[in-house]
Write a structure and sequence with these properties.
By secondary structure, the chain is an all-alpha fold. 83% of the residues lie in helices and 0% in strands. It is flat. This is ABC transporter permease. Its main location: membrane.
Length: 259
């Protein structure tokens, strides 16, 4: 009900009307005859974008938690490497990181017979492991800094009180420290996830066929420029909208979950 009331605000109704008019104009005045032929390829590209995004943010967040924790309370021999990793990742272009892993590490592996003869070699010869690894490290580098601030923002009195009651360290971390740090980092995590989505087209440079690569192929095959790009933009807007709604839903459940 609240969502319906929010949508009935006059300015939002005007925006929806303008958007509907633009969509209708695009559907009528533009050439979409190529769409049925490339629909299977578009769906494959959409799926590739979604699974690369999902895997990289899950693995990246799992790596960001210890990176943030090491910077927040770790000794110097843990905090210094974590800080250096986040600084390097945040200070270098993602495209450079992708190329270093794919063309650098990927060309180094064939020189080792043990790797070429292993069961992992069929996977290491493909591009997607390097794409997932580079996006994972990129997400971890940014979110490691976010989690550092989130861990530091949790009141120390709560942790000291839990220790006074004899709660073990792992329970303090998983029941008190991590949930509160996660809730405080939620808005930033949502924004970084959308930025991660917009970074996925870079993996097309190492032959990954995702949404951007599909749009480029349609443009090269048909010499139609604007229609594939508009469809590409609509796909990214759809995924970004789902991500935004998901994070808002999680944020809305935060107070209930804390009780």
């Amino acid at each position: 009900m609240d969502m319906i009331r929010a949508m009935l605000i006059p300015r939002r109704l005007v925006m929806l009307g303008l958007f509907a008019a633009f969509v209708a104009w695009c559907a009528v005045s533009m050439d979409w005859s190529w769409l049925p032929r490339y629909t299977p390829l578009i769906l494959d590209g959409l799926w590739a974008t979604i699974w690369i995004l999902a895997v990289s943010i899950i693995l990246g967040f799992m790596l960001a938690v210890p990176l943030g924790l090491a910077q927040a309370i770790g000794p110097w021999y843990l905090s210094a490497p974590a800080r250096a990793f986040c600084t390097i990742i945040r200070g270098t272009p993602l495209l450079l990181q992708i190329w270093l892993l794919y063309y650098g590490l990927g060309s180094l592996f064939p020189q080792f017979p043990a790797i070429r003869n292993s069961e992992l070699w069929p996977y290491l010869r493909q591009a997607w492991p390097y794409a997932v690894l580079s996006l994972t490290l990129s997400y971890a580098g940014y979110e490691g800094e976010v989690m550092r601030g989130a861990f530091a923002s949790v009141q120390k009195g709560q942790i000291e009180a839990a220790r006074a009651f004899g709660m073990p360290r792992h329970k303090i971390f998983f029941r008190i420290w991590l949930p509160q740090a996660f809730r405080s980092a939620m808005p930033t995590l949502g924004g970084e996830t959308i930025l991660q989505l917009k970074a996925t087209p870079l993996v097309a440079t190492i032959t990954i066929v995702e949404l951007y690569a599909v749009a480029s192929r349609v443009r090269q095959d048909t010499f139609i420029v604007y229609e594939p790009l508009l469809l590409l933009a609509a796909g990214y807007l759809l995924i970004a909208g789902v991500i935004t709604l998901a994070f808002r839903w999680i944020e809305g459940r935060g107070p209930r979950m804390s009780r």
